[in-house]
TrEMBL record:
Gene (UniProt): LOC127360857
Domain called Ig-like: residue spans: 201-275
Family: Belongs to the MHC class I family.
Residue intervals passing through the bilayer: 305-330
Protein name: Ig-like domain-containing protein
One annotated GO biological process: immune response
Record-linked Pfam families: C1-set (PF07654), MHC_I (PF00129)
Protein source organism: Dicentrarchus labrax
GO cellular component labels: external side of plasma membrane; extracellular space
Cross-referenced SUPFAM superfamilies: Immunoglobulin (SSF48726), MHC antigen-recognition domain (SSF54452)
Signal peptide positions on this chain: 1-16
Keywords of the record: Glycoprotein, Membrane, Signal, Transmembrane, Transmembrane helix
Length: 357
């Protein structure tokens, strides 16, 4: 259950052009075996600290958070205080909302997400503070007008009440525009070896059948500030090109692919195409020439099988051969791609195309 909740919170991939800090509080009622209150500190979409109403001590989830707490015990104290006070506060809030909605029982979830984004190139900072109830946006703070925005009719009375509390709005404004950005900069500096790292992906060409588009696939890069394009004679092309989304891998790195439809390209012209991967802040691009020998596929041409009764025998022999090279079969498992050329190394195929979190 805990995992389900956290996945819902973390699964959307932001365009990490910016660094971000999010404090996500989740209060629930009527969910058995799940803490009534869960708090998550998330830096650059990676869970960094956690606490809940059962264990009120903040748990560091990244090495750099451990180092930070060792160097600055007050920081640890600050979060621990929050973790012991917030559950009661949110319990009162959710009870209040249940009354407003005339809900006596059932499962209810109140979430607050506050934090900021910081662009380390332009220095621009954006703060946000929003609440959701039962999975829908409920109310949020507008930093331009310093008033609350009701996102549901039931939130209007709350908006009117909260708007009169100027002192509280002022505290929130300082948090969102000054305190949180300072924290985020501190965290990015502490976590620099993991958050500011640059991981170069492995890039390969994949094709399902000889008439399918050729997919240029890059996986294992970090951060997600990257481009993947097809070029013809060194110029980027857009026609017959289909860009996939950037997806998150299980290990926190990213993958993406870009397909090129080659149905109108003659074999002689193939060598004029290449696929280029570029990671922001990294000088050397990765360039893969379009070359039949480089393409990995699981396609077996039907003409390779002789017709008639022989087929049974051949298939039998083929199966035997495949069993002997059993390792090879294993490698096909998840994604169905294997090297077109059996002498190729297929070692890294198993971690390609891993399903996004
Ligand atoms: C809740 O119940 C009261 C009294 O029964 C009613 O006046 C009010 O409109 C109800 N509110 C909602 C949101 O249904
Ligand atoms: C992280 O910061 C430390 C100290 O400021 C520095 O020595 C180190 O090179 C930095 N690492 C990266 C990956 O930026
Ligand atoms: C590739 O392009 C051809 C014509 O240019 C079109 O008929 C075909 O449907 C396209 N294939 C895909 C997979 O988009």
């Amino acid at each position: 259950m805990k995992h389900v909740f956290l996945l819902i919170l973390l699964c959307h991939v932001s365009s990490a052009v910016k660094h971000s800090l999010k404090f996500i509080f989740t209060a629930s009622s009527g969910v058995p075996d799940f803490p009534e209150f869960v708090a998550a500190g998330v830096v650059d979409d990676i869970l960094s600290g956690y606490c809940d109403s059962n264990k009120k001590i903040v748990e560091p989830k990244q090495d750099w958070v451990n180092r930070l707490f060792e160097d600055d015990p007050q920081h640890f104290e600050l979060y621990t205080t929050e973790c012991s006070e917030k559950p009661l506060f949110f319990k009162a809030r959710i009870n209040n909302l249940k009354q407003r909605f005339n809900q006596s029982g059932g499962v209810h979830v109140l979430q607050r997400m506050s934090g900021c984004e910081w662009d380390d190139e332009t220095g621009e900072v954006n703060g946000f503070n929003q609440l959701g109830y039962d999975g829908e946006d409920f109310i949020s703070l507008d930093l331009k007008t310093l008033t609350w925005i009701a996102l549901k009719p039931q939130a209007v009375p709350i908006k009117l009440m909260w708007d009169t509390d100027k002192a509280r709005i002022k505290v929130k404004e300082i948090d969102l525009t000054k305190i949180f950005p300072e924290l985020l900069k501190k965290y990015v500096a502490y976590g620099n070896s993991s958050l500011q790292r640059k991981d170069i992906p492995s890039v390969s060409l994949l094709q399902k059948t000889p008439s399918s588009p050729v997919s240029c696939h890059a996986t294992g890069f970090y951060p997600d500030r990257a481009t993947l394009i097809w070029r013809k004679d060194g110029e980027e092309i857009h026609e017959d090109v289909d860009h996939g989304e950037i997806l998150l891998n299980h290990d926190g790195s990213f993958q993406m692919s870009v397909d090129l439809n080659l149905s109108s390209v003659t074999p002689e012209d193939w060598r004029r195409y290449d696929c280029v991967f570029q990671l922001s802040g990294v000088k050397n691009d990765i360039v893969i020439r379009l070359d039949k020998a480089e393409i990995r596929t699981n396609w077996v041409s039907p003409s390779e099988f002789p017709a008639g009764a022989v087929i049974g025998v051949v298939v039998g022999l083929l199966l035997l051969a495949l069993c002997i090279t059993g390792l090879f079969i294993w490698r096909r498992n998840k994604n169905g791609f294997r090297p077109a050329n059996t002498s190729d190394s297929s070692a890294s195929l198993s971690d390609r195309n891993s399903a996004p979190d």
